[in-house]
């Protein structure tokens, strides 16, 4: 597929202006000056090079600058593209929203879905479907590379482009087979670990300038820039034409200040015992690092878990596993967090709380439930709808804490409602933490942001954090400052340390005493003051200088440091001495353990066979009966805990409900929502009402299918309830049944929008009210039941009909129809909605209405294309015939609607030797007529 020939701009302009971009289709945003400068730089790269890297810090608007370049290419150069945008699945929805908001003139194709959906899209594209921008994910691009590479792409945009840092990655290899004229990489973290990664990105955008086979030469050439300032200047000059990076401190002067704070905490006595036990668990691994790195890394991970909370290990939490203060007191980190959250809650702050481990999030969730704090949670297991709902709830409601995993919650979200970010633990890659913190500190934030990192004093957490700081300094020196004093220097961070030495860090002070080292702290002094829920940034506590050595007597210096400056040391000779002393004590203990101990003494690594526990404490093995009793207690405790959480959840919901009721009363609002069906008699009746679609209905239990306008129901003398499905936005729709209902009555829009204003549109709610204000029947009243069965998010994206909400609404309508002795009239819900499950919907209508004795009518609107039916206007059943005839004589706007043809009434349909999937499809088509299906 050929690319369009571009034209040169009619006038050579000295400088691209925002007015030009608006003329070419930019809407919904006013670019900041640095963003406009970025677009100008991108246009120059487009003219002179094969690619570039936009490496602005997270939250500075790389997406809008990229979209502006696409508009420039189309408007100034006359190119229709096509443009290919690749991004992670987690940010694809954000790209879609911003494309529609900033560049509605560009035809966007979201190339996503399962295999069948993509095959359908491929057919449309081959058939000539037009688009300017194709948006898809890395994985789908890799999977469908053979199809996508048939285009000659004018511009490729790769978001979160550090995915391409590995020269041997499958995605990178696949993209090199594409025809691409210009490659633009977006990444807030162009350097994560080494110069090798920088070269890898450069070789992707400019393969002729930076050949892949010259990577080692590049790294070697610039490895010793510390002693050669001219070489450093040269490297900066090499990078400058291809990479643009701005940080918030330089360009976003209007962005509120971000203060980063490291707060140290002590360890409980229980944590200390387990920390020592973990170190002694695999003694053989410490003999040398050769071949033992996997085992040492496992020890490192176990130590980090211990510093977070000892209950992460099985068998540590005391039985009978009930919620209590022991959950807090067992961990020095959680003790500090407990007092910190109390301080933040009183100050009116809102918090993003991050951890790398989902099991830590589980403990935090129990803790938040125990303390009664409101929260939302998002981790890698949360998908689609639930993810969006959690974000929506945190944004729109007064939720105190958002509990997030660092990786899952670190990209694709704008959470500027929070002004405090807390990291329970640090990621080995500091860029992931930066990405996470940028959820709150970004364009749109109006308050100062405090980023707090909790570190276990004299533990491996300190050394992990030191390595992270070293990697960040690498990024700063390579990209932002043009200085490279820390590149490839073994003394920076912990680069020159053996892994076994890292694990010994801090043991001298940490294990000098078995008692808890947790201390009380003055959070007002540490965190700073706030007013009306906002941090005050004018005054700060005095900071220790780099020359000052924190003494043991100086509690404040020992407990925390400010602005991310770390004063920890490398593992000392005292640490090594203490470790060796503990090792000898462990061997002596094993020697005294008898025969088994003497065998273990000859091979220290045999300590791995012992269960993780307090050293020297030997337990009697439990019998099977005792183990089963323990498991039973755990199950009972888990059930009790779940019940307690459910009770607290109901209590919070009831409190919110009472608050809403008080608001409604003060506003003079009366809810029109139907109550839930909750009588025991009705519930028992429902249990026996799961009617199969293949059963033979009696006439009074049949669904009646008619042609006509549902807004003028074909009812006799009984009341009639018209059913319509709406979303939870409170914005009345246009066209179709929405317009027809407005013509019939002024009430639908009025009552629905009022309910939206009063937050009375929860999923499953049913608004019921009369619509006889303009026109009424002689006998019987007409009501409208609006079922809230769809959701609309803040970006105006509408979900499909939720069958669970529809079912809940139908139950309520059944109760109302029974009380009023009314018939129910529905359009074919979801008609023409692609992929909608009409078969399942019809079963719900049958189950909750017609099979329970409610006269139920489904209307097929007679379009202009249909002039007549192929048979006399008879109903699908005698009951339908009588009601239709009565309706025609009752006024109803003078609109008489014939029923569906009944010339095949009473026909029996048998399926023979037909696949189940095809049978289901056929049954869905045939059920509209009164056939008996077998």
From TrEMBL:
<dbReference type="InterPro" id="IPR027417">
    <property type="entry name" value="P-loop_NTPase"/>
</dbReference>
<keyword id="KW-0547">Nucleotide-binding</keyword>
<dbReference type="Pfam" id="PF00271">
    <property type="entry name" value="Helicase_C"/>
</dbReference>
<dbReference type="InterPro" id="IPR043472">
    <property type="entry name" value="Macro_dom-like"/>
</dbReference>
<dbReference type="InterPro" id="IPR014001">
    <property type="entry name" value="Helicase_ATP-bd"/>
</dbReference>
<keyword id="KW-0067">ATP-binding</keyword>
<dbReference type="InterPro" id="IPR038718">
    <property type="entry name" value="SNF2-like_sf"/>
</dbReference>
<feature type="compositionally biased region" description="Acidic residues">
    <location>
        <begin position="677"/>
        <end position="690"/>
    </location>
</feature>
<dbReference type="InterPro" id="IPR049730">
    <property type="entry name" value="SNF2/RAD54-like_C"/>
</dbReference>
<dbReference type="InterPro" id="IPR000330">
    <property type="entry name" value="SNF2_N"/>
</dbReference>
<feature type="domain" description="Helicase C-terminal">
    <location>
        <begin position="336"/>
        <end position="490"/>
    </location>
</feature>
<keyword id="KW-0234">DNA repair</keyword>
<dbReference type="GO" id="GO:0005694">
    <property type="term" value="C:chromosome"/>
</dbReference>
<comment type="similarity">
    <text>Belongs to the SNF2/RAD54 helicase family.</text>
</comment>
<feature type="domain" description="Helicase ATP-binding">
    <location>
        <begin position="43"/>
        <end position="208"/>
    </location>
</feature>
<protein>
    <recommendedName>
        <fullName>Chromodomain-helicase-DNA-binding protein 1-like</fullName>
    </recommendedName>
</protein>
<feature type="domain" description="Macro">
    <location>
        <begin position="690"/>
        <end position="865"/>
    </location>
</feature>
<keyword id="KW-0378">Hydrolase</keyword>
<keyword id="KW-0539">Nucleus</keyword>
<keyword id="KW-0227">DNA damage</keyword>
<dbReference type="Pfam" id="PF00176">
    <property type="entry name" value="SNF2-rel_dom"/>
</dbReference>
<dbReference type="GO" id="GO:0006281">
    <property type="term" value="P:DNA repair"/>
</dbReference>
<keyword id="KW-0175">Coiled coil</keyword>
<feature type="region of interest" description="Disordered">
    <location>
        <begin position="673"/>
        <end position="695"/>
    </location>
</feature>
<dbReference type="InterPro" id="IPR002589">
    <property type="entry name" value="Macro_dom"/>
</dbReference>
<dbReference type="InterPro" id="IPR031053">
    <property type="entry name" value="ALC1"/>
</dbReference>
<feature type="region of interest" description="Disordered">
    <location>
        <begin position="631"/>
        <end position="650"/>
    </location>
</feature>
<keyword id="KW-0158">Chromosome</keyword>
<feature type="compositionally biased region" description="Acidic residues">
    <location>
        <begin position="545"/>
        <end position="554"/>
    </location>
</feature>
<dbReference type="GO" id="GO:0005634">
    <property type="term" value="C:nucleus"/>
</dbReference>
<dbReference type="GO" id="GO:0005524">
    <property type="term" value="F:ATP binding"/>
</dbReference>
<dbReference type="InterPro" id="IPR001650">
    <property type="entry name" value="Helicase_C-like"/>
</dbReference>
<dbReference type="GO" id="GO:0016787">
    <property type="term" value="F:hydrolase activity"/>
</dbReference>
<feature type="region of interest" description="Disordered">
    <location>
        <begin position="534"/>
        <end position="556"/>
    </location>
</feature>
<dbReference type="GO" id="GO:0006338">
    <property type="term" value="P:chromatin remodeling"/>
</dbReference>
<dbReference type="GO" id="GO:0003678">
    <property type="term" value="F:DNA helicase activity"/>
</dbReference>
């Amino acid at each position: 597929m050929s690319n369009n020939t571009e034209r040169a701009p009619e006038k050579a302009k000295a400088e691209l202006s925002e007015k030009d971009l608006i003329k070419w289709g930019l809407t919904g945003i006013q670019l900041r000056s640095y963003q406009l400068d970025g677009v100008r730089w991108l246009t120059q790269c487009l003219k002179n090079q094969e690619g570039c890297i936009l490496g602005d810090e997270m939250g500075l608007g790389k997406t809008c600058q990229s979209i502006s370049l696409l508009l420039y290419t189309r408007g100034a150069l006359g190119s229709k593209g096509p443009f290919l945008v690749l991004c992670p699945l987690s940010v694809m929805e954000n790209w879609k929203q911003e494309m529609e908001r900033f560049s509605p003139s560009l035809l966007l194709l979201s190339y996503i879905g399962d295999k069948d959906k993509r095959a359908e899209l491929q057919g449309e594209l081959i058939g000539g479907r037009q688009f300017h921008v194709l948006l898809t994910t890395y994985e789908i691009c890799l999977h469908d590379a053979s199809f996508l590479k048939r285009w000659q792409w004018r511009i490729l945009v790769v978001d979160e482009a550090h995915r391409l840092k590995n020269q041997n990655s499958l995605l990178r290899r696949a993209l090199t087979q594409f025809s691409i004229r210009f490659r633009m990489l977006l990444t807030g973290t162009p350097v994560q670990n080494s110069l090798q990664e920088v070269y890898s990105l450069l070789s992707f955008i400019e393969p002729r300038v930076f050949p892949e086979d010259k990577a080692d030469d590049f790294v070697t050439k610039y490895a010793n820039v510390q002693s050669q300032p001219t070489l450093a200047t040269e490297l900066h000059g090499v990078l400058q034409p291809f990479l643009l990076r701005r940080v918030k401190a330089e360009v976003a002067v209007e962005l509120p200040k971000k203060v980063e704070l490291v707060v140290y905490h002590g360890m409980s006595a229980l944590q200390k015992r387990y920390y020592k036990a973990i170190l002694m668990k695999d003694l053989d691994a410490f003999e040398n690092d050769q071949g033992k790195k996997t085992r040492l890394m496992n020890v490192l991970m176990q130590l980090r878990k211990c510093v977070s909370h000892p209950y992460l290990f099985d068998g540590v939490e005391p039985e009978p596993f009930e919620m209590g203060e022991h959950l807090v007191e067992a961990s020095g980190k959680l003790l500090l967090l407990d007092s910190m959250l109390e301080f933040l809650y009183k100050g009116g702050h809102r918090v993003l709380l991050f951890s790398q481990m989902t099991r830590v999030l589980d403990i935090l969730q129990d803790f938040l439930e125990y303390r009664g704090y409101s929260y939302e949670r998002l981790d890698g297991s949360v998908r689609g709808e639930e993810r969006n709902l959690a974000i929506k709830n945190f944004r729109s409601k007064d939720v105190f804490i958002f509990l997030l995993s660092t990786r899952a919650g670190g990209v694709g979200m704008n959470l500027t409602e929070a002004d405090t970010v807390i990291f329970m633990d640090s990621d080995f890659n500091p860029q992931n933490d930066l990405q996470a913190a940028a959820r709150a500190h970004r364009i749109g934030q109006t308050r100062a942001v405090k980023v707090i990192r909790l570190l276990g004093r004299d533990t491996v957490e300190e050394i992990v954090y030191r390595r992270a700081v070293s990697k960040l300094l690498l990024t700063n020196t390579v990209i932002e400052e043009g200085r490279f004093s820390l590149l490839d220097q073994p003394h920076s961070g912990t680069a020159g340390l053996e892994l076994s030495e890292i694990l010994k860090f801090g043991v001298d002070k940490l294990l000098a005493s078995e008692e808890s080292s947790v201390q009380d702290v003055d959070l007002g002094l540490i965190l700073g003051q706030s007013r009306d829920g906002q941090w005050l940034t004018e005054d700060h506590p005095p900071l220790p200088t780099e020359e000052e050595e924190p003494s043991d007597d100086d509690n404040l210096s020992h407990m925390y440091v400010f602005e991310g400056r770390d004063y920890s040391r490398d593992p000392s000779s005292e640490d090594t001495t203490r470790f060796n002393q503990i090792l000898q004590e462990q061997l002596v203990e094993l020697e005294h353990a008898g025969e088994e101990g003497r065998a273990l003494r000859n091979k220290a690594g045999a300590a791995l066979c012992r269960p993780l526990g307090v050293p020297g404490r030997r337990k009697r093995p439990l019998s099977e009966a005792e183990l089963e009793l323990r498991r039973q207690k755990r199950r009972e405790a888990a059930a009790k805990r779940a019940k307690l959480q459910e009770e607290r959840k109901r209590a919070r919901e009831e409190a919110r409900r009472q608050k809403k009721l008080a608001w409604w009363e003060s506003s003079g609002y009366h809810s029109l929502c139907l109550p839930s069906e909750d009588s025991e008699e009705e519930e028992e009746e429902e249990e026996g009402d799961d009617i199969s679609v293949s059963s033979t209905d009696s006439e009074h239990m049949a669904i009646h299918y008619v042609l006509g306008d549902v807004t003028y129901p074909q009812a006799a003398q009984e009341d009639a309830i018209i059913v319509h499905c709406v979303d939870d936005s409170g914005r009345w729709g246009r066209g179709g049944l929405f317009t027809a209902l407005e013509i019939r009555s002024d009430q639908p829009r009025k009552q629905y929008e009022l309910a939206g204003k009063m937050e009375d549109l929860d999923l499953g709610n049913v608004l019921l009210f009369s619509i006889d204000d303009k026109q009424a029947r002689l006998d019987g009243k007409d009501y409208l039941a609006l079922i809230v069965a769809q959701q609309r998010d803040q970006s105006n994206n509408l979900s499909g009909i939720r069958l669970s909400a529809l079912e809940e609404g139908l139950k309520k309508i059944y109760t109302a129809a029974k009380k009023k002795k009314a018939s129910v009239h529905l359009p074919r819900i979801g008609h023409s909605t692609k992929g909608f499950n009409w078969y399942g919907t019809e079963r719900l209508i049958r189950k909750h209405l017609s099979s329970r004795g409610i006269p139920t009518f489904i209307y097929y609107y007679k379009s202009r294309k249909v002039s007549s039916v192929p048979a006399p206007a008879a109903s699908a059943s005698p009951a339908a015939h009588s009601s239709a005839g009565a309706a025609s004589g009752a006024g109803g706007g003078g609109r008489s609607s014939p029923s569906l043809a009944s010339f095949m009434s009473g026909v029996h349909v048998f399926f023979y030797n037909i696949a189940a999937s095809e049978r289901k499809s056929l049954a869905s088509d045939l059920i509209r007529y009164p056939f008996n299906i077998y």
